[in-house]
Amino acid sequence: MRGLLFVLAWLMMMFGSWALAETRPLNPQSGGTIYQQHCLRCHGRAGDGLGSDARSLIVPPENLQSPRSRSKTDRELMLGISQGVLFSPMHGWRDRLSEQEMRDVLSYIRTFAPFLPVT
Ligand code: HEC
């Protein structure tokens, strides 16, 4: 019995903090709300880059559905969302959105533009 308690205590010590550090699961639905608020006007409804503001931009918004964009890894796209794209109207969002919100919005983008590995 004491042995069992010991094992339980050990397990809690080993994995308790790990479970706490785990971020909550991605939420494409709330990502969609963020997308509609902040990204739609440039990237367009289906991420095609034809949002209402796109016409007035010299550097056009990325078509997120293009194979070029889809072949980028989550890490690469997150970097663009977080830090922005140099010499373009795409500024970084890390000051306005939390890490979790940026992950959610990326998971939403992945619903219409799934990762397409280059072969
Ligand atoms: C003012 C217009 C504008 C807004 C608003 C905007 N973007 Fe962008 N986005 C751009 C432009 C322009 C580019 C860069 C295109 C290029 O590199 O030629 C870009 C690039 C990107 C890229 C990089 C794509 C790639 O293939 O590297 C991602 C990802 C992205 N945007 C996501 C978002 C998300 C998510 C939001 C909302 C939180 C957002 N954008 C809001 C204009 C915008």
List the defining traits of the structure above.
119 residues, Cytochrome Bc1 Complex, Chain D, domain 2, 53% helix, binds heme C
Give a structural overview.
It is a single chain. The chain is mostly helical. It has a single domain (27-112), classed as Cytochrome c-like domain (Cytochrome Bc1 Complex, Chain D, domain 2, Orthogonal Bundle), CATH 1.10.760.10. It is 53% helix and 0% strand. α2 (28-38) crosses α6 and α5 crosses α6 (99-112). The chain is elongated, with a radius of gyration of 19 Å. Residues 38-39, 41-43, 53, 57, 59, 61-62, 69, 72, 77, 80-81, 85, 88-90, 93, 105 line the site of heme C.
How do the helices and strands line up, and which of them pair or pack?
Elements: H1 2-21, H2 28-38, H3 40-43, H4 67-70, H5 74-83, H6 99-112
